[in-house]
Amino acid sequence: MPVQITIIGLGQVGASIGLALAAHKDSVFCVGHDKQFSVERAAQQKGAVDKTEHNLPKAVQGARLVLLALPVHQVRETLEFIAPDLTPGMVVVDTSPIKAEVAKWAKDILPEGCFYVGLIPTIAAEFLHESTTGLDSAKADLFKDSIFLVDAPSGTPSNVLQMVTDLVKLIGATIMIADVLESDGLMASAYLLPQLVSTALLNATMNQPGWKEARKVAERAYHAATSIQDDPDSLWMLSLHNRENTIRVLNAMIQSLVELRDDVEDGNDEALKNRLQSAQSGREAWLGDRFSATWADRKTPPLEKTPLKERLLGSMLGKSTKDKK
After folding, report:
1. Which of 206, 223, 259, 322 is 20 to 30 A from 302, alpha carbon to alpha carbon?
2. H or E element, residue 6
3. If you ran DSSP here, which 8-state letter would residue 117 be given?
4. Do 124 and 221 meet the contact criterion of CB atoms below 8 Å apart?
C-alpha cells in the first residue's frame, strides 16, 4: 500500500515534487494543501497531487512525511499549526533556503517522537533561464539530475535520513549532505547575494536623477540583472535570519565593486580587462559543471544495495523510530 506524503504549498517547488512523485504511485500517495482553493484544484487537475485537503490538520493526518514547500516567513506559523496533529514517527521536511533558524523552530515546536530534516532543492540546469514561479511553472523534471542539500540535525535516526534520501531519488535528484551552518553559508552566496545585489542595483538606479530618461533605454542587461527576487517578506527574513553570512557575502561584493571602480578610476586597462575576462571564464566553467552534473566532489551517504522502492516503503512502513534524545 502506498504511503502518504502531504505537500503543504503547491507553488512551483511543491507541485513539481508532486509531479515527479506521480510516476511512483505504487510507492507514494500525495495529499496537497494550499492556502488558495483555486491552487489546490489546479494542482490536482495538473496531476501534482492525488488528493487535496484544505483543512490543514486533516491534511497531515495519516501522513508519514509532511513536506513544507513554503516561503520562509510562513514556515514557523505552519509548524505551530500542524504540531498538535503530528504523531510519533512522522517526519517533517521543509524546502526553505535557510536552515539553522528553521531547525531551531522545529526543535522547539515539533512534538516528541517527530523528526525534522531540511532540504534545499536546486532546479535542473536547463531551466536556469526561466524566471517564472508558481504552479503554472511546475514541471515533473524540474529537479532531474540536480542536487538537493540535505540537512539532518545531530541525532537524526539513520532510517529517517534514509527515507528522505529515498524521496529525493524518486524525485530524480541526488543529494549532498551538509550541516545547517554549512548550507546557510552556501545559500548566502548562491541564493541571497544575487537577490540583494539586484535590490541594490534597482535602488541605485531608480532612485537617482536621470532615471526618468534611463528607464526608456534600459533593456536586456538591466532586465536580466533584476529579474529574479523573492517577495520582500521572504528576502527580508532570509537576510536577517542568516545575518552573519549575509554580511560576509555583502562585504565580499562591496570589495569586488571597489576593485572594479578603482580599475576604472585609475584607467588600469589591463587589470580591468583581466577582471572581466576572469568573471566570464568563471561563469562558463560554472555553467559547464551545472549542465554536466558530474560533481565528483559532492558528499553522499553510503549506497545500499536494496532496491530503492523497497527501502522507501520499508523505512516508511517499518517500526517507529526511537524517540529523540
Report:
1. 322
2. strand 3-8
3. E
4. no
Which uninterrupted H or E stretch holds 27? Answer: none
Q: Where are the chain's structural domains?
A: 3-178+299-317, 182-267
Q: Which CATH superfamily is domain 182-267 in?
A: 6-phosphogluconate dehydrogenase C-terminal like domain (1.10.3660.10)
pLDDT means per 10 residues in the chain (325 residues)? 94 96 94 96 96 96 96 95 96 96 96 96 91 90 94 91 94 92 95 95 92 94 85 91 96 97 96 96 93 66 47 48 41
Quote the cell numbers at residue 285: 566553467
The three cell numbers locating residue 316: 516508511
Closest CA to 88 of 56, 63, 59, 117: 63
Nearest partner of 172 among 3, 23, 14, 9, judged by Cα: 23
Q: Select from 176, 171, 110, 114 the least CA-distant residue to 312.
A: 171
